[in-house]
Structures are given as C-alpha cells and as structure tokens.
Amino acid sequence: MKPYFLPLLLPFSYTAFADNQNNDAIETITTTASRIEALSTPLPLSISTLSEAQLNSIAPTHIEEALQRVAGTNIQRGNGQEYLPALRSQVLSGAGACGGILTLEDGIPLRAAGFCNINELFEAHSEMAQRIEVLKGPGSALYGSNAVHGVINVITPDTTQGGGLVGLDYGSYGYTRYKLRAGQDYGNSGIGINVSVTDDSGYRDDESVEQQKVNIRHRYSNNNLLLTSGLTYTNLDQQTAGFITGFESYKNEDLAQKNFDPNAFRKARAFRAWSNATWQLNNDDVLSTTLYFREQSMDFFKHFLPGTPLEKNSQTGFGVQSLYQHNLQSNIKVNIGLDGEYTQADFTQSQNEPTQGSAFLVATVPQGKHYDYDINATLYAPFVSVDWQLNKWLVTAGLRYEHMRYDYTNNMLAGRTKDDGSECGFGGCRYSRPASAKNSFSNLSPKLGVSYQYNTNNTLYANFSRGYRAPQAAELYQLQRKQTTANLNAEIANNAELGMKGVYEKLRYGVSVYAMSKHNTIYRDSDFFTVNNGSSRHRGIELELDYQLTKTLALNFAGTYAKHTYTNNQVLNGLNINGNDIDTAPRNIANLDLTWQALSNTQFALQWHRVGNYYTVPENINKYQGHDILSLRAQWQVTNNLEVLARVINLTDEAYAERADYTSFTGDRYFPSKPRTAMLSATYTW
C-alpha cells in the first residue's frame, strides 16, 4: 500500500506544521479542504489544527477548553456538557442557528443536515481525540448545508496500529474520568478501541454529568484496496442547572452555586458506524467511498420555557460520501463526487403539569401535547473541483449543487389548539402546528481560491466562496402564535478572505482577514413568527502564532478582532437595530500560552484567556463587561511510559459568566463560572 493512501483513510483533511526544531520546513496535508491527498501544498484557505500533544497537555473536560486556542472561535459553556458556538460569528442560539456551523467526527457529520442540535459536539469523542481541526469560513465547495461559518472536525485516533494507554483524571467538585485505548496490528489488518467514562457531580446544586464514549476501528488492506471501518457510541445522562438572574449575579458566590431548575435534565444517545474503501486506480487515479449509518435520540426537559415541557426527538439514517480523483494533466487534478443522505426523524413536545405564572401564560401554554410529527428527509449533492498548479501559483475552483427535501407528517390537529382540539384563551395557544407538507430546497455553492508560494515556507492566498444552510426542521415545523406556515429560503453567506501563513526562522504564523455578508437570515421576530428577512455583516482579522522565544520558552497565541453587525431594518423597543453590533458577539477574543521547559521531562504553562465585552440585546443597551482568566499547567514525564499532568483553572479565583444573556421576562441572566478548580491526570502508555 503506497504511503499517499494514508490521508485518504477518512473523509476529512487537515493542515499541520511538520515537527521541526529548526522550523525550516512546513508540510501541508489536505483532505478536509479538497478531499484529495496533497503534500506540501499551500491551500488558499484558513485551517487551524489542535494536535494530539496539545490536547493531551490541555486534558479538556469540555471541548470549549481546547477550542479557546483557535482564533475566531468562541464557545460559551452552559451547564454540564451544554454550550453555544461561534465561529467567525456571534454566539449562535435559537431553533436552527446551529445550522451555521458544520460539526464532524472523522469527516462524517454528527447530525443530518436539517436536524442539528446546538450542543451536538458532545456526541464527538473530543476528550480522547487525535486532532481537532477547524476550517474557517465557507472555504470549500465540498461542504454544503450548515457549513456557513466553517467546519469543526474531531478526529479520533487510528487504534489499529497497536499500542495503547490507560489514564485517570481526578478533579475538583467530584470530577473523575477513566480512559482506555488499545489496539492490535496484524500487518495488513488491525483492530482497536478508544474509551472514556466521565462522572462529574458538579459545582452547582443538583447538577451532574455521567457520560460514556467509545470508538472501535478496523483496518484491512490488500493490493490497491484499503478498507477502514469504525463506530462511535456516546451516552449522556445530565442533571442540568439553568441560568441565574439579576445584574452581575454571577459575582454572588452563594447565588452562583444555586440551581433554580433542579428537575432539568438531558439524556442523549448517539451511534454512528462507517466504512471507507479507497482504491488506487491506473495513472494514480483514486476512488474513495464512505458509507455510514447514524442513529440518535434525546430526552430534554426544557426548563427555560413556560410550563417546562419535555422534548423527545430521534433521527435514524444512512448516507454516502464519494470522490473520484483524476489527474487530467501533470499539473491539473479534477475531483468529482456525490454525497447523499436519507433520514427518518420524529419529534414530540409535551407538558405533564399545568403552567404556572400569569393568567396569559396559564391560558396560552396548555398541559398536554404541543407537537408530534415525523419527517423523512432526503439530500443529494454532486460536486466538482479543479486544482491547477502553475509554478508557484495554485488555483482551485469548485462547485456544489445540493438538493434537500422534507416530507413532513403532522400527527396532531393542525393549528394552535390544545391537543384535544379545544381553544386556548387570549386568542389562541402559544404553539402552532403546520399541516402536513413537503418542502424542498436547492442551492449552488461556488468557490474560487488562489495561493502564491513566495518562498519554500511562506504562502499568500485569497479565496472567494459561498456558504448556505437550508432551513432546519425546527424552524419550519415548530411554529408559534398565529403563524401557520413558514415560507423560508436558505440562508446565504458570501465570503472573501485574504491571508498569509508559514514559517519564518523560529516563528510559525497564520494571519487572515475576512469579510462576509449574510442574507435570508432566519430568526423569530417580535410577533413570534419565524421569518427569513434578516441580514448581517461579519468582518474580522485573525492571528495565530507559535514562537520559540528561547530554548526553554515558547509562546502560542490565538487572537481575533471582529465586528458582527445587523444590516436589516428591524425595530425593537422603538429602536432600529440596523448597524448595531449583533448581541453576544465580543469584538476581541484572545488566548496566550507561555510554556517553560524547566527540565528535559518537566514543563509548565501559564495560560491567559480573554473574552471582550459584548452586548446582550440587539438594541445594544445591556452589556456584559467580559473577563480575563489565568490558568496554570504542569507536565511531568515520570518514565518513558508514565506521564503526570496537573492543572489549576481560574488561578485567581475570578467570578465571571461563562454566558451572559438578557430577556424581557427575566432581565440579566447568566451561566456562572466555576471558581478556582484543580485537576490531576496520570496516563500510562505502551
């Protein structure tokens, strides 16, 4: 089996710097951006990679702790494993906003295109990943619906090569994690397993997380065929603590620890199985096909809604990713592929007890079933791309066509009645069920990129691309008030980017400047209608540096300055928000790690993480002041096989908000941070 097959084992790509003490070389390996194998080729786009060594030194209890080190990313933790994401965007929230970022494990989407969940990254095995790769912006024609602001790809280790590890993480407030990795290499085949078990009793009252994750992988090769297969299973059982309310209430230690939603919970299960076959054909042509099966289910107590209803949802489906790479000439490669998915999904929302609160809420939020529907969804997407190498210039162009169809069946009475057909007071019930229907969405996604390698290790690039996302099922079929149908189009984002990346002496760097405009943005207006007339502008500059200051001191920096603004006319509380900053969109975010190699087997790292201030309402009236957090890590390589890691997070015991928000019903509300916490880890490898 030729070595250039290795990057094609999985349907993803990455850009990484080669480990080189002299920093005199840079190596680029790509399959995320282009789904083709390419060594030492500078690509006209921005990809950040968190390596296995970085992830091991961070030992993240939540993926947010790792993604702090990626410029342009802002993950706001909720409680337990919950979060809200941002990638070259404001922090995304709402029924379908999660469709703005595509999340993958081993190149396979965690969720079907129309059924995203805002917290879905907890279904990826990031705790024991080999790498996490972040493609920023709609940089590729190969990713369709949901890859508007970018792609986050969690890559699990190839355990079929033999070896393994056992590990234990033990931390403050009852945190424990057990880890196991083992495999066996039989030459032309191999098998392995990757497991983590987490038990976290939590800082706040009546909160806890129990989570189990497992990856199994098999490899087989024969002549020009390489077959790799894998599966992932995750299970989450979480008792959730919700917001606390009151201006800067997170500064009150007693209040920050309280849980005013002790009955809230989330139970989620996910299973994915996949198999990739890669054939080396004549003339170095390559054919790669991945088949996958995906099944998820979740029970979710919506403690933040009146009446605290229970949501139950599930999705079952299968899909295919295919690629044929043909060398048209020695300097021209053509890539042709077809992606497809079929998904069966169901959703129910019901309320067991009468609503508490005002007469209006009691009358309009009834006890009983609110929604009950099934959906059969079909997606197919052919694509083509061309890479043309002209001396130091690389031109890439691609086009993707995607068609998505929902076949929606309402299992209740249509309209805004109670489940028995009786009317609610005050003009009707809160929840409105559209009649059974079929909805289709078709989109074209072009991409053009140009890069210039002006010397061996440094590259200038520019790209122009379009991203889109079809409306999510929740936006189409979970309506409210007087709305009976949602006539929605796909969200569209047009993006332009300039950048430079490479190595200069002891400095590795990447800098990018982007400008994105979005239209047809989907949101819920002041009448509680799901509408499609929003628009926004996103401008930013990102910088990532890795600098060897001395033989023993190294600096790693990731920072962004960005401005995300509304460009549509919408009047809220008498104010037109056109031109305002989008709420929950800090303009500056930065992370700095200073690492000291004290001894050959011992190192210390001091981390500074900054989140700038941001508005919590579109009117730009209420604001969170931001925060700066210091953390400290120490690593000790006790023997060749045994490593010990200690961490102190929030070293100065700062009181801050993981997430700040504001509603007209509650006023200021927050997910409070933990106080200073510590964790000790031990890992034995063989």
Description:
This is Ligand-gated channel protein. Belongs to the TonB-dependent receptor family. Residues 1-18 form the signal peptide. Residues 172-651 form the TonB-dependent receptor-like beta-barrel domain. A hairpin with a 2-residue loop joins β18 and β19 (393-410). It contains five helices and 38 strands. It has a 22-stranded antiparallel beta barrel. A five-stranded mixed beta sheet has the order 1-6-7-4-5. A three-stranded antiparallel beta sheet has the order 13-37-36. The radius of gyration is 25 Å and the shape is globular. The protein has one domain (3-308, 315-366, 375-430, 445-685): Maltoporin, Chain A. With 686 residues, it is mainly β.
Topology:
Elements: E1 47-50, H1 52-58, H2 63-67, E2 76-77, E3 83-84, E4 102-105, E5 108-109, E6 131-136, E7 150-155, E8 163-171, E9 175-185, E10 189-200, E11 208-222, E12 225-239, E13 244-245, H3 253-257, E14 265-280, E15 286-301, E16 310-329, E17 332-351, H4 359-364, E18 368-390, E19 393-410, E20 431-432, E21 437-455, E22 458-469, H5 473-477, E23 479-480, E24 491-504, E25 507-524, E26 530-548, E27 553-566, E28 571-572, E29 575-576, E30 588-599, E31 602-611, E32 614-615, E33 623-624, E34 627-637, E35 642-649, E36 657-663, E37 667-672, E38 677-685
Parallel strand pairs: 4-7
Antiparallel strand pairs: 1-6, 2-3, 4-5, 6-7, 8-9, 8-38, 9-10, 10-11, 11-12, 12-14, 13-37, 14-15, 15-16, 16-17, 17-18, 18-19, 19-21, 20-23, 21-22, 22-24, 24-25, 25-26, 26-27, 27-30, 28-29, 30-31, 31-34, 32-33, 34-35, 35-38, 36-37
